[in-house]
Design a protein that fits this description.
Chain A: One of its GO terms (cellular component) is plasma membrane. The complex is a heterotrimer of chains A (395), B (350) and C (351). Chain A has 395 residues and is mostly helical. Chain A is built from 19 helices and 2 strands. Chain B has 350 residues and is of the alpha/beta class. Classes of the chains: A mainly alpha (395), B alpha/beta (350), C alpha+beta (351).
Chain lengths: 395, 350, 351
């Protein structure tokens, strides 16, 4: 790599350095916490230590022996830390729906029973006659688990312990994850397609014009998400500005479906993320000497070949940083797709948010985050490989 | 030069972050958290500001978008930076079981019998009764839809429909459209065949559904004509009718009502002030002012009785409106939300 | 002389400002023409119009009798050497030089051969795999030159190509470019504001002032017989003397300056007030009275310059600067002397 391109690259990087610092402080560290949360699984053993021991000898095929019943009743009766109990319940309920009401009822019964050891579980709740509830407890005994990571990929362990795919229709994380990358990729391409000429225009323009162009691209960053979304709504809806204009010009007969679909998501996200593309490219282009394009022309290069052989290779470091930034940020979007997208534009972050915020299932949220991180890192490595290649386009 | 500037910027950033941390660590005024928007504006006028004046201490108010994960994170942080939070029924049930909330002092509230039975819990007291219902623009629809069956009838009412994205408030309505009586909805949903039945019914409407996520969206959708009818929060409907002169109507039969409650986060440093605030906001003479601003029902029986008749008609708690409405089954959703959400996403992706 | 390049009544305006004003200019094939003038005189704009980067507001430009006024730059076959070389920073020296050949779709093998030969010619072959940023200023200059030459263009245009080099290197490069011009028979249009550069290298010099040509001539004619006051002052050092024409003939005249009548060269009509230009080194200084064009002067100042001395002479109201060889005698301040010059060395300037 030449010194000049190192300089260009470091210049582009310096521009985004505060952002990187911010990401490290507010994303990497919490993410690490989430990652540990995704594999550590000690909530149940902490609260039910006797049950864990008693279950060691049970093979999990039928109902457990009475000793397990007694141990569970004793554990529940003596459980003091309500928050820890709550965590255990959340963990079990996430494995088998219904555990929450089941355990709440059983705890009350165990505390009120004169002899906990003889508590008749089936009488407290008939669900205790189903082995799957017991099995869920047994499966939650080991302190580390891969069930979150498996579930994040729509996999699970069957009764025999081998990994199997979830039956179709039961989970869609893989589809949503793939969709997330497709949307982020499309947005990155759209940003590049608009951002490169835009940055070239801004770098070529002078004075007030340049300031206006840069301001225009920054405005969406400073606008509230809801205002922005409302604005897109006004523009893109069936009776919106764009459809009405096209209709009155006679270009279209029926309104185009521009909102509540993939197109709407890509338009709205491209709008917001454009600065992340334009600024790095601009910062690189502004450093390109003004006379290179005339020089190329004088040497016989038409405008397209001059762009392809001279301007594009020089803008490449900025374009690459821009693409990387846009892609990374786009992967994490979920409000915009939720507001202007259709049924099949939901992104993986919204699933993560559902687990993290909606059900406090941080293990699952962490596992999804970890998978997302791993795929992103993989893509980054591919990018690094590609961008290090000495072969220039068209060379 | 550039790197100098960058370092300066980074320095400023860390200084701001640092200062923020220091301020955050200091003793904090009573902080009340509600749902934002014009609902919180109304609360500020009738609860927050009068209470601050009466107690002589400042009161901070913030807004949130719900989620037990948020509460859990706050409580597990040690000393929460919120004191009083208005939560939905599931968050009340979950958080109460998990020990995220302080026990309320019911003596200060005047006793449990002063409130609707469903609004009473060890951890929380009802603040409002609100409803999710079928609504439509009466200026645009000649014939009024009367039920979820009409909602599903795209022959009679051509056009798109708005529904909240997620299993909650979609599966229930699907079952009612399929002929399940309002009273049996959750019983049916608790069986695997009932869930299959609901998804199957949703299948039929799927191409016609526009999914919404935030409470303001269904109003936009109705106003723009993007959908002919939608599920919506009743308070928002009467709000926009008043504010923008719309003629949006609510179909009460088959609506699902729920209670939001005030809770105090565990280990709140302002526990006593928080309890006083909840008592203030639950007192009939204060609570009765709410329906003037927003059409939510009142859990305090005395306050509910004192609401003028003209306002009464728009409230979910009006006897006529309540007749065929369904109370939200928080326990059902607490148990099943994860699994059903997973299945819902998979269904959407098909 | 059949003009290879012709500007016909070319005007260029930038907004309300006229940068080039009704230019007529002919350049012969194989000629080295310098466009000389102060900054803002329009010389670079003329070059840019010739290269195709600027369009004339009116008028036409012809190349080999064909109009090229609206031909885009990449179709003009002109090699341009820019002020700061404009090398492509992402390409090696060899790739830079190969660029114009690739644009002409010359076969690979031939490109390699021609690039090697061109780099050999300027002794840059050992550096062919370096990037421009790893070269010295002079090396970069040579790469830029090679790149402009390698595709054998009809014309080479140079926009102050030596401006960024230090004095020694600049002089060396001047000779190198002059040498290339002679060896290859190139047509070169060379923009500069450095008069000595123009005088050293050119076949002809066009002196520009405020968008107009003041004079186009050989270096010698521009120096010895400046037509205007601007040319006389811009190129070299001169004495300007005011006087009145008393007699006029073919290419010569008698001008009265103060009490003295001087024989000068130039085409003027009698009775006019005129300015005369007289180069310092053309003034002869002696103790004896001279036949014609003699002024009795007093040495008012004497400045030592190493290889020569500069004398300030006074004769009544006239003040002249003269150049004296060190061996020509001792000219102490206050010395009385006679200054004289040949009529062909004193030119009447068009006012």
């Amino acid at each position: 790599m030449s010194r000049a391109s190192v300089r260009d690259r470091s210049r582009a990087f310096a521009l985004v350095a505060p952002l990187v610092l911010f990401l490290a402080l507010f994303f990497v560290w919490p993410l690490w916490t989430m990652v540990t949360a995704s594999v550590v699984d000690d909530a149940v053993t902490k609260v039910l230590p006797r049950t864990a021991v008693a279950m060691a000898d049970w093979d999990g095929s039928d109902l457990p022996p009475p000793a397990v019943h007694g141990a569970l009743a004793e554990d529940l009766r003596t459980a003091q830390d309500q928050q820890a109990l709550g965590e255990a319940v959340r963990r079990l309920n996430s494995a088998v729906s219904g555990f929450r009401t089941l355990l709440t009822r059983t705890v009350t019964a165990a505390r009120e029973a004169p002899d906990p050891a003889a508590l008749d579980f089936a009488a407290v709740d008939p669900r205790w006659n189903e082995p799957r509830f017991w099995r869920a407890i047994k499966e939650a005994v080991p302190p580390y688990t891969d069930r979150n990571l498996l579930a994040a990929l729509d996999l699970r362990r069957d009764a025999g312990g081998s990994i199997v795919a979830e039956e179709p229709g039961a989970a869609a994380n893989r589809i949503i994850m793939l969709r997330t990358f497709v949307i982020a990729g499309s947005v990155t391409l759209a940003c590049a397609a608009i951002g490169l000429p835009y940055a070239m225009l801004a770098a070529a323009a002078g004075g007030v014009m340049r300031a206006l162009l840069l301001l225009a691209v920054l405005v969406p960053l400073w606008t509230s998400l809801l205002v922005r979304t409302a604005a897109w709504f006004i523009l893109l809806q069936q009776e919106g500005l764009i459809n009405r204009t096209l209709g009155s010009l006679g270009i279209i007969d029926a309104p185009l479906p521009l909102i509540f679909n993939r197109l709407g998501v890509i338009i709205a996200m491209t709008h917001v993320l454009l600065p992340f593309m334009v600024l790095p490219i601009y910062s690189v282009l502004i450093a390109v000497p003004r006379n290179l394009m005339p020089a190329a022309a004088s040497l016989g290069a038409g405008p397209i070949r001059a762009f392809w052989r001279v301007l594009l290779p020089l803008a490449m470091p900025g374009l690459m940083s821009g693409c990387l930034l846009v892609f990374m940020v786009a992967i994490g979007y979920y409000i915009t797709p939720a507001l202007v997208g259709g049924a099949n534009d939901q992104m993986i972050s919204s699933v993560i948010a559902f687990y993290a915020l909606g059900t406090a299932n941080w293990g699952m949220a962490g596992a999804l985050g970890l998978i997302l991180l791993a795929v992103t890192l993989l893509l980054y490595l591919v990018y690094g490989r590609l961008s290090r290649s000495p072969q220039l386009p068209g060379a | 030069m550039r790197s100098v500037r960058t370092f300066a910027l980074v320095g400023c950033l860390s200084a701001v972050v640092g200062a923020w941390g220091i301020i955050g660590a200091e003793a904090r005024d009573l902080t009340v958290v509600s749902w934002g928007g014009n609902y919180q504006d109304a609360q500020r006028k009738i609860y927050f500001e009068p209470f601050a004046k009466q107690s002589g201490k400042p009161l901070l108010d913030e807004s949130w978008d719900g989620g037990i994960g948020v509460i859990a994170a706050k409580v597990k942080a040690g000393v929460p930076n919120w004191d009083v939070v208005q939560v939905e029924s599931e968050e009340l049930a979950l958080g109460c079981a998990d020990g995220f909330y302080e026990q309320l002092d019911w003596d200060k509230l005047g006793g449990k019998d002063k409130f609707l039975p469903a609004a009473v819990s060890d951890c929380g007291v009802g603040a409002i009764v609100w409803s999710t219902a079928l609504s439509y623009d009466a200026d645009k629809l000649k014939e009024a839809p009367a039920s979820w069956a009409d909602f599903w009838d795209v022959q009679k009412f051509p056009g798109k429909r708005g529904l909240r994205r997620g299993p909650k408030y979609a599966l229930e309505f699907a079952l009612m459209a399929d002929g399940v009586a309002p009273a049996d909805v959750y019983k049916e949903l608790a069986t695997p065949t009932g869930v299959d039945r609901a998804f199957k019914k949703l299948d039929a409407l799927k191409p016609h559904i526009v999914w919404w996520e935030s409470g303001a969206q269904p109003l936009q959708l109705l106003a723009s004509g993007e959908v002919v009818m939608t599920s919506a929060y009743n308070g928002r409907i009467s709000g926009i009718n008043k504010a923008e002169g719309k003629n949006f109507k609510v179909v009460w039969p088959g609506s699902i009502y729920a209670i939001d409650s005030w809770v105090i986060l565990k280990d709140s440093p302002n526990k006593d002030a928080a309890m006083d605030f909840i008592a203030f906001a639950s007192a009939p003479e204060n609570q009765v002012k709410l329906p003037e601003y927003i059409a939510y029902g009142l859990p305090n029986k005395e306050a509910a009785g004192a609401v003028p008749a003209n306002l009464q008609a728009d409230l979910p708690t009006a006897p006529d409106n309540l007749a065929e409405a369904v109370p939200l089954d928080a326990d059902f959703w607490v148990d099943n939300i994860e699994e059903l959400n997973k299945r819902f996403n998979a269904w959407l992706a098909q | 002389m059949g003009a290879f390049i012709a500007f016909q009544d070319v005007t260029k305006n930038f907004g309300a400002v006229t940068v080039v004003d009704r230019l007529d200019l002919q350049i012969a094939k194989g000629e080295f023409l310098s466009l000389l003038g102060p900054s803002g005189s329009g010389k670079t704009t003329i070059l840019m119009m010739l290269a195709g980067f600027e369009r004339p507001t009116s008028g036409a430009i012809l190349l080999a009798d064909k109009p090229i006024t609206h031909l885009p730059p990449h179709r003009r076959q002109m090699g341009v050497v820019f002020q700061n070389y404009a090398l492509f920073p992402h390409m090696t020296v060899a790739e830079n030089v190969a660029f114009p050949l690739e644009m002409q779709r010359v076969p690979r093998a031939e490109i390699t051969r021609r690039v090697e030969r061109a780099l050999d010619m300027v002794r840059l072959s050992p550096l062919k795999d370096r990037k421009p940023s790893q070269l010295s200023g002079g090396q970069q200059q040579r790469v830029a030159l090679t790149r402009a030459l390698v595709f054998e263009p009809d014309v080479i245009l140079m926009d102050e190509p030596l401006g960024a080099l230090d004095k020694q290197l600049r002089e060396h490069m001047q000779l190198e470019i002059r040498d290339l011009h002679r060896r290859l028979g190139l047509t070169i249009v060379f923009v500069t504001h450095d008069q000595s550069e123009a005088l050293t290298m050119s076949d002809r010099i066009a002196v520009f002032n405020a968008g107009k040509v003041e004079q186009i001539d050989t270096p010698q004619a521009v120096y010895d017989r400046p037509r205007t006051r601007f040319v006389a002052e811009f190129i070299g050092e001169t004495n300007l003397v005011e006087g009145k024409v008393v007699e006029a003939g073919a290419q010569q005249a008698v001008v009265r300056v103060g009490e003295t009548a001087l024989n000068v060269s130039g085409e003027v009509s009698p009775g006019r007030d005129v300015s005369l230009s007289l180069r310092p080194e053309r003034i002869r200084l002696g103790k004896e009275p001279a036949a014609a064009n003699a002024l009795n002067v007093t040495v008012a100042d004497c400045i030592y310059h190493g290889d020569h001395m500069r004398l300030v002479l006074k004769s009544g109201t006239i003040e002249l600067v003269a150049r004296a060889e060190r061996l020509a005698g001792d000219w102490a301040v206050g010395t009385e002397a006679v200054a004289s010059f040949d009529p062909q060395d004193c030119t009447v300037l068009a006012s």
